[in-house]
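request received
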Amino acid sequence: MTAKSIQTKPIEGQKPGTSGLRKKTKTFMEPHYLENFIQAIWESIGGVKGKTLVLGGDGRYFNDRAAQVILRMAAASGAKKVIVGQNALMSTPAASNLIRQKKTDGGIIMSASHNPGGPDEDFGVKFNMPNGGPAPEEVTNRMVKATQSIKDYLILEAQDVDLSKRGATKLGDMEIDVVDPVKDYAQLMEQLFDFRAIKGLFEKGFTMRFDAMHAVTGPYAKAILEGRLGAPAGTVVNAEPKPDFGGGHPDPNPIWAKELMDLMMGEEAPDFGAASDGDGDRNMILGRGCYVGPSDSLAVLAANATLAPAYREGLKGVARSMPTSRALDRVAAKRGLDCYETPTGWKFFGNLLDDGRITLCGEESAGTGSDHVREKDGLWAVLLWLNILAKTGKSVQEIMDAHWAEFGRNFYSRHDYEAVDAKKANEMMDALRARLPDLPGTIIHGRTVEAANEFAYDDPVDGSRSEGQGLRVMFEDGGRIVYRLSGTGTVGATLRVYIEDVSDDPESFGDDPQDALADMIAIADELAGIEEHTGRDEPDVRT
Ligand code: VG1
Ligand code: CO
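response:
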């Protein structure tokens, strides 16, 4: 087997966004596209010679082909070893865990997460660092640079590696270890949570449905919930990972997980419902007749985490991404915890976790996690919820009611306008940005603007600064509106509008957020001129 140097040219647009490089699958399948980017990853980390990497993906279309290319490129560039999930499958949190546990030099995760999969849908690649977390901006900037000057890449001429059988094998001089992607992760979960208490819950007849949305979490959820925890067979549905996720969006929210949503709101609802996304790092939490918003879920987990063995000693601190509701801040204030506010994307939590400043963190987009790995973790959140339910004996609704009674309620919703003309979306953002300095003191619908600015983050650990992280308008009464353009979409621009309002009046706690926020929603449109700029009078998705 010989390593060949293949001549290539820079390809435009190879710039990682919020979470890795995401493009149409067909784009990734174009000649040299994947190869150029992988070579750029090697350049950005000082090469892979002698290094050990982890490799896995969410099983979407092209996952298997891409894995073979990446293995041949790692071997050609002198990598010592690659640990691959069987059939090239591995959830994002499980990959993060393996990278850390096996003390490797990092890993590649093939996923476009919650984006749909298939030949006409999306594919993605991201690199995680030796700490198990997504590459920080400094490294992704180096990747971009490398893609812009690339002239050639190295690849081994070889047959496909059989990734369907576990065990050690070789590709040229490189060792390959094909591993069970579930085992180490399941063991980690068992260390963190009170499995005996959760088992007891199921023994008492507690009912649950977990919708794996035909994505990578299926095998994990089956092994842990139905295997180790004794939930009845059939608790996990849509458990088989499919290349096109069964035709759906593997995005656990009330729109895309509608079947689960309908079940949980109906007569036959089980006690608990949950779902996860394409690569297993997001979660949705439901009780009987009760949807738990991700920001609220984060706050509840922070308030109750000490019920789980891993967090018994208390939390070091907490963090949330800027657009996430400030329900978490209320918990932190009451419990005397430091609370950090970071830009959108998990990569910004890594330093805080590594530095021991925080134990728990999360985002409004249904991602929550802790210092057990350096990614958000869907099943982790589900298991922590189960641990809390088992220990308190309360229902999800009772937990929410008690939480709001103690801390007050932050009504919250995110409105997404998808595939908007990118030029128009940017014009809208530019116009609003220009108006921000004049907004403080203005009264809109009887509410006074307290502050308005564009969010920038100074990392307290390494001193790096990240600018342009979203426009925000804060009101004196505690309300807030945030505007950002998505960094994970592949068509045009996706405008995200995050709307929040606070209430300490128990009478209002049962209200539907869309109703409770109606006034703020109108203000959000008025302030930015969403309809005027984009021509859209309604969002595509409300979560
Ligand atoms: C979205 C979410 C963000 C999340 C990111 C990756 O990014 O808003 O909170 O971290 O997806 O999640 P954006 O830039 O589209 O708003 V996942 O599950 O793709 O790894
Ligand atoms: Co994801």
